Amino acid sequence: MQVSTEHLLQQAHERFAVQDYYGAIHLLDEILESGRRFADVYHLRGLCYSLIGQTEKSLEDFDRALVVNPRYVDALIHRGVVLVELGRSNEADGSFQRAAALGQAEASGFSRPVASRLANMHAALGDAYAEVGAMGEGIREYQRAVALGPDFHDLRYKLARLLLESGRQIEAREELERIVALQPHFVDAQAALGLAHYLSGDAAGAREIWTKCLRERPGNTRIGAYLAMARRLDA
Fold it and tell me: CA quadruple 70, 37, 187, 117: dihedral positive or negative?
């Protein structure tokens, strides 16, 4: 029986969280070998390769993630960080600038179990739309999901990420601020909120948020990458 992509990817994230990068790579390889080639999978495998010192493989995976989703901000940022480590500063700056430029793009009556089931169905449809590049439809499905469950913070976070990828950073900020107000220890949401500030022109606010996050989670790869980008672009 084929294990679902979602289950394997969740396991890979769990292995990544405990710094078992080889274990995470094995799980991600299983997803890719089955023909399920998703940007999130390539991006996470790229991070794993970078953290075990296999930088060329890391860059290849970030590039593959960007082929699947050219607006993948995190893949651009982490690609830039690896290039900096390799001394390829000009290429790194180009990657960081592409990430920053995305911010300039164009712009219930049900019981809780029923609402949750319907919200997850809308979210799954939103993922399907986003996977084929129909970001507007994907966002609308996630908005429907969040309307069904205003306190489903994981779905609101995904909505905010889609808004960011679509260049709708002000709307993304609003969604992320709601999450952080109720879930102050949701570090991924805090990091994304900093990115939304940065892409909307508030670099100082972004650095403040990311610095606070890094104090709470020292060594967080994503936040460190965001700060590295800000330092280079604002130098």
Answer: positive
Phi, psi of 136 (to 5 degrees): -60, -45
Tokens matching residue 231? 């330092």
**CA quadruple 227, 18, 190, 31: dihedral sign:** positive
Q: What gap in Å lies between CA 144 and CA 60, rounded to an integer?
A: 36
Instruction: Tell me the whole-structure pTM to 2 decimals.
Output: 0.65
What is the set of domains in the chain, with CATH numbers?
Answer: 5-104 (1.25.40.10), 112-234 (1.25.40.10)
**Dihedral (C-alpha) 211, 212, 214, 216: value to the nearest 10 degrees?**
170
Q: Are 232 and 77 in contact (CB under 8 A)?
A: no
User: Coil, helix or strand for 26?
Assistant: helix
Split at pLDDT 50, 70, 90, the class of 116 is confident
Averaged pLDDT, 127-154: 90
Q: Which two tokens stand for residue 8?
A: 């394997």
pLDDT of residue 100 exceeding 50, the answer is yes
**DSSP of 174-209, one letter per residue?**
HHHHHHHHH-TT-HHHHHHHHHHHHHTT-HHHHHHH
In this structure, which amino acid lies at residue 3?
A: V
